[in-house]
């Protein structure tokens, strides 16, 4: 986001603008390849980071709550309500306030506000990291992925049960026993 903000603030990274009153079709000023490259590179970085962080942030938030504690289970539901509210409010803010700022005040401030918001969120994450619950990795994630693939290949010809109760699901006590013993494995 900071690279995108720099591409509209730094004059050498910003394409030249036409004089006021000249129609877009009559303007003969074009962006340099470097300017276009930096702009698209910044957009691609934002897209890749968003695709990688959105699913992980919600699961990291869910890991902060213990499903075996009734109070924390209720707090987890509240967390997801606030999470979704924040996502939708951010979308509303971006499509109204930021567009207004970019059109009427300037692109620098229009991109600077979300950059400051991201910097603040990173700061909150870093300051809060010692207080987060961290799940200890149990083995290689590739082993678990391979177990799922092998199990799905072995069970591919099994008929799908008509009753959802017949699907494999451990009872709550079995999850608690596995969690306490540290033996969380996939059943094949």
What does this protein look like?
With 188 residues, the chain is mainly alpha-helical. The chain has helices at residues 2-9, 33-62, 70-104, 107-128, 141-154, 172-181. Helix 1 (2-9) packs antiparallel against helix 2 (33-62) and helix 1 (2-9) runs antiparallel to helix 4 (107-128). The longest helix has 35 residues, at 70-104. Residues 182-188 have low confidence and may be disordered.
Question: What letter string, H or E per element, gives the SSE order?
Answer: HHHHHH
What portion of residues belong to β-strands? under 5%
Distance between the termini: 44 Å
Question: Mean pLDDT, rounded to whole units?
Answer: 81
Can you tell me the overall shape?
Answer: elongated
Number of strands: 0
Which residue ranges are poorly predicted, with pLDDT under 50 across at least 5 consecutive positions?
182-188
Largest sheet, strands/sense/barrel? none
Proportion in helices? 55-70%
Number of helices: 6
Class from helix and strand fractions:
mainly alpha
Based on CA atoms alone, the radius of gyration comes out at 25 Å
